[in-house]
Design brief:
377 residues, mainly beta, five-stranded antiparallel beta sheet, 3 helices, 6% helix
């Protein structure tokens, strides 16, 4: 029996996609303008290797930043300005990246079924509060084709100066605080990174997968100063989780919080040390406005439009089958449909809302090359 489900693919620092099923009467229209970027079509890998996807970011002055995967192990970083004029200005930097491990079909299917690590890679893009530098991080996971080997994570980090549009630093690393961390810029321009360093469990190998009595997680957090990533303000803490009482939710507590955590917590403006890694989710107004299967994809700076991304589909044994996808813009607070764009069902096209010349625009990049610009009515 097919069960309904929702699919949502997401990149943490830039675009969150959502699903829309209850509203189907928004205006469908053709792009107001189109522009073909100087790039190759975004490649898509197979054999259960997670391929890179294009990432978009909009600066406060409405310049569009894009990280676009290319063939031959290359990435393009582009800045596109004056896109609303019909004659955009396009600036480009090119990076060479390490080739990704591939699998044959049989070993990939075995890993997919039994849970061993599958090679994947993704890009994060972060801009400092002064909008002077961009930190691009290409994170790669890899591992052997069996379910007992540990996966490894590495990162290629590039810092770009937006004022000169040039590379100011570049490095490859397996340092957990650079390659595995969650990170965000603080107001003073420091990059606060935190990650899980070590986990111990009791029993070490339970009879039932995941049925641990206790879990002890050791975390570390630091403040980095780009572009050289010198570190300061180190914080170490341990979180102990007790799951021995099956009748209640797991009981956890912080232990061994180091003295350096107080200053880092204050800089990050979070409630406690454990929020450096697991920051509490902020409530999202209008999250349910488009229906129960939807999540917000983006919001216009003018705060009068919200973008939702819709997936419908079902599970077929162990595979997820997508049957339809579309983007919809709703006006808030009432939720009136303003714009609808239907997409290929298996597409991962990034989109966002922009505001310039007194109008709200939907920017959609197809296949990493075709920029479609829709004026929102």
């Amino acid at each position: 029996m097919h069960n309904p489900f929702q699919l949502a693919w997401c990149r943490p620092i830039i675009i969150a996609f959502a699903c829309l099923s209850s509203i189907s009467f928004a205006q469908t229209t053709s792009p107001t303008m189109t522009y073909k970027l100087d790039a190759q079509k975004e490649p898509h890998l197979s054999n259960f290797v997670s391929s890179l996807s294009t990432v978009l970011y909009l600066t406060p002055d409405q310049a569009l930043l894009a990280v676009i995967p290319q063939g031959d192990n290359k990435l393009l970083f582009k800045r596109i300005t004056a896109w609303e004029t019909g004659a955009p200005k396009e600036e480009t930097l090119t990076f060479t990246i390490k080739p990704m491990e591939k699998r044959n079909f049989l070993s990939s299917l075995t890993c997919h079924t039994f849970g061993c690590s599958v090679p994947s890679r993704f890009v994060t893009l972060d801009v400092d509060p002064e909008r002077h530098i961009v930190v691009l991080r290409l994170i790669s996971d890899s591992g052997a084709t069996n379910n007992t080997a540990k996966w490894t994570r590495s990162a290629e980090i590039v810092v770009v100066d937006l004022r000169s549009f040039s590379i100011v630093s570049q490095q490859n690393t397996t340092d957990p605080l650079l390659a595995r961390s969650e990170w965000n810029f603080a107001d003073n321009g420091m990059l606060i990174a935190s990650t899980l360093m070590e986990r111990t469990t009791s029993p070490p190998k339970p009879k039932l997968m995941g049925a641990y009595d206790t879990i002890t997680d050791h975390y570390k957090a630091v403040a980095f100063a780009p572009p050289q990533f010198t570190s300061s303000m180190e914080c170490d803490y341990t979180r102990f989780i007790d799951d021995r009482d099956a009748k209640s939710e797991h009981n956890w507590q912080l232990t061994k919080v180091s003295d350096g955590c107080a200053s880092l917590v204050a800089l990050a403006q979070v409630p406690a040390a454990d929020s450096l890694y697991d920051a509490p989710q902020k409530p999202q107004p209008y999250a349910a406005l488009a229906g129960p299967t939807c999540r917000i994809s983006g919001k216009s700076a003018a705060s009068d439009n919200i973008l939702y991304d819709c997936h419908t589909g079902y599970y077929d044994d162990m595979f997820a089958i997508t049957t339809s996808r579309k983007l919809t813009v709703l006006k808030i607070p009432g939720g009136q449909p303003a714009l609808e764009v239907r997409l290929p069902r298996n597409s991962k096209y990034p989109a966002l809302l922009a505001n310039t010349v007194g109008h709200t625009w939907l920017l959609l990049l197809r296949d990493g090359i075709n920029l479609e610009i829709y004026r929102v009515p």
